[in-house]
Design the sequence.
């Protein structure tokens, strides 16, 4: 039995026994489904995207209050045409709730997601409290008393007034959402989402608009919460502000973290555990302590401390690990998908200037990191940038790749001025790069890491990914990634986690990732660091091949033998200024270079 078979068996068993469960159990199961829907959005937002939110309960409230207002307001009844079916009012409320939630989440996301560190969760607490008090202080929403008399949902004239009938709808919506979210993560868009957590600089350099993706993910989590609120309102048939306060928002986050913040099924596990535990504690704690109160909050706090210390990734990965003893790995789908054609770049003619830095200067307060630096990179050449530690190589490298902005001077890529433009625009124009300190998604496979480099060569969006309409493009992206991995000599490691490779191999993975974007200009930051002699020879052979194909390659490197045997031109920096430029032979005999940096080591290097 595979995990897929086990999942289908559990769903079938739940469907079979649903009609025989007590009404109280059906109600609890319905609430678990509602909470898990919100927690699944938090898994995407917090566990995968790296954005902590304590305010999701407010979005649940938006969905609930929108349908409650539509279904009970006399003003709405007056605006609708005569004879408008009352059974359609809840569905009109769903549309209004989604529209309002989208607008509010878009606005709040634009403001809040500019914050970082602990300011971001504090910001979510602020607007979560604000929306809660708005719900309670608007007379049109019934104030803190709330709105009552909501009609039940109806489908085809059949009333879903009880948990016996509405519960299956709630769980169907939850399972559909989990299926769609899983498809999203298993796609080009999903790789970009995973890169948001701790890899935004890298993702931008691959062409991902991380700010836009963060807002989209924030809105997605809010919409899931709104759907949960809509279903909740018609399950309760009554809405007031209490279920949407900041305490409930914290509980939703507890559910995601306890279950496993990086795992979609962890949302279901966390919602189940917290709901059942809360139900039992509310009965037992007053009896044990002899007084009533929200004592379960204390237990939840202790539980959170225990889980964070003993199960940092949540309970779901531990449970999944135990299940591997008797579950077989899921077999890949047998349905073949013809790969689509990816965008192809026509490389410039040999000798054409690809990258041109003119009088580039960078100041950090009183520190002058780069001063009036000139350098160009041409198609079909290898240009090396060398200099002692602290010479300003990394600062210059970041400026010509869009990670940093020059204080003065100009950087032109493919003839276009790049002043003030983000690094993703550099990627779009044909610049690929690696990093001095390796930036990979360590827990993802080498294949997935390299496929991220081809992000701009695909175009399918979130909806297509959720519905698995992107399979032809996804097959092409993965085929391109595997080709570049094999080209770089790491074919046997393609399906291993990137973090399991040696440092030198991880640097080669970064090169393969950059090549997957089909760049015209390739910037390599210390690519030979950590490689053994034979691996350096293989790397040099690969770079020579790329040069022959027409790529312009800029290399920052400390290994002088590697540089001198590879480069066509060399630029030497010292204290942020260019002290020499020319062929390897010219640099080796330059007195300023010999005095400032390399001396005998340079003289001994091969030309």
Sequence:
């Amino acid at each position: 039995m595979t995990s897929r078979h086990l999942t289908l068996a559990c769903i079938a068993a739940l469907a079979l026994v649903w009609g025989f469960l007590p009404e109280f159990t059906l109600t609890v199961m319905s609430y678990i489904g509602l909470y898990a829907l919100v927690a699944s959005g938090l898994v995407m937002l917090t566990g995968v995207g790296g954005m902590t939110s304590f305010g999701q309960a407010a979005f649940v409230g938006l969905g609930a209050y929108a349908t409650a207002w539509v279904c009970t307001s006399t003003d709405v009844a007056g605006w609708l045409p005569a004879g408008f079916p009352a059974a359609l009012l809840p569905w009109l409320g769903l549309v209004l709730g989604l529209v309002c939630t989208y607008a509010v989440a878009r606005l709040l996301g634009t403001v809040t997601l500019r914050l970082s560190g602990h300011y971001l969760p504090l910001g979510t607490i602020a607007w979560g409290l604000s929306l809660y008090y708005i719900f309670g202080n608007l007379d049109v929403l019934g104030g803190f008393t709330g709105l009552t008399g909501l009609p039940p949902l109806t489908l085809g004239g059949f009333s879903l007034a009880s948990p016996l009938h509405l519960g299956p709808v709630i769980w169907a919506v939850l399972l559909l959402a989990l299926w769609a979210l899983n498809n999203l993560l298993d796609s080009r868009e999903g790789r970009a989402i995973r890169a948001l957590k701790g890899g935004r600089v890298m993702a931008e350099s691959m062409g991902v608009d991380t700010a836009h993706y963060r807002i989209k993910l924030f809105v997605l989590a809010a919409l899931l919460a709104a759907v949960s609120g809509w279903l909740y309102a018609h399950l309760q048939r009554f809405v007031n502000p209490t279920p949407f306060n900041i305490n409930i928002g914290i509980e939703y986050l507890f559910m995601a973290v306890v279950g496993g913040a990086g795992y979609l099924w962890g949302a279901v596990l966390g919602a189940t555990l917290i709901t059942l535990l809360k139900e039992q504690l509310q009965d037992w704690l007053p009896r044990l302590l002899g007084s009533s109160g929200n004592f379960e909050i204390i237990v939840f706090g202790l539980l959170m401390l225990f889980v964070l210390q003993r199960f940092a990734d949540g309970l779901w990965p531990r449970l999944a690990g135990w299940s591997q003893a008797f579950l077989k790995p899921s077999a890949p789908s047998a349905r073949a998908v013809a790969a689509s054609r990816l965008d192809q770049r026509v490389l410039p003619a040999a000798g054409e200037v690809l990258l041109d830095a003119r009088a580039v200067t960078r100041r950090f307060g009183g520190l002058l990191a780069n001063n009036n630096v000139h350098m160009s990179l041409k198609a079909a050449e290898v240009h090396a940038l060398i200099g002692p530690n602290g010479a300003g190589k990394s600062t210059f490298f970041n400026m010509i790749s869009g990670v940093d902005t020059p204080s003065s001077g100009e950087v032109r890529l493919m003839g276009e001025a790049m002043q003030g433009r983000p690094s993703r625009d550099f990627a779009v124009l044909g610049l690929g790069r690696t990093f001095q300190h390796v930036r990979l998604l360590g827990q993802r496979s080498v294949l997935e890491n390299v496929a991220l480099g081809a992000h701009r060569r695909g175009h399918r969006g979130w909806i297509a990914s959720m519905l698995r309409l992107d399979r032809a493009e996804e097959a092409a992206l993965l085929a391109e990634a595997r080709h570049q991995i094999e080209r770089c000599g790491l074919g046997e490691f393609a399906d291993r986690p990137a973090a399991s490779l040696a440092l030198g191999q991880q640097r080669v993975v970064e090169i393969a990732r950059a090549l997957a974007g089909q760049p015209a200009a390739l910037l390599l930051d210390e690519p030979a660091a950590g490689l053994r002699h034979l691996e350096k020879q293989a790397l040099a052979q690969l770079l020579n091949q790329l040069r022959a194909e027409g790529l312009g390659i800029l290399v920052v490197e400390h290994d002088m033998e590697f540089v001198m045997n590879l480069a066509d031109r060399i630029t030497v920096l010292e204290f942020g200024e260019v002290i020499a430029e020319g062929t390897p032979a010219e640099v080796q005999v330059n007195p300023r270079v010999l005095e400032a940096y390399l001396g005998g080591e340079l003289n001994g290097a091969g030309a």
Notes: The first strand starts at residue 147 and ends at 148. The CA atoms of residues 88 and 224 lie 21 Å apart. Residues 210-236 form the longest helix (27 residues).
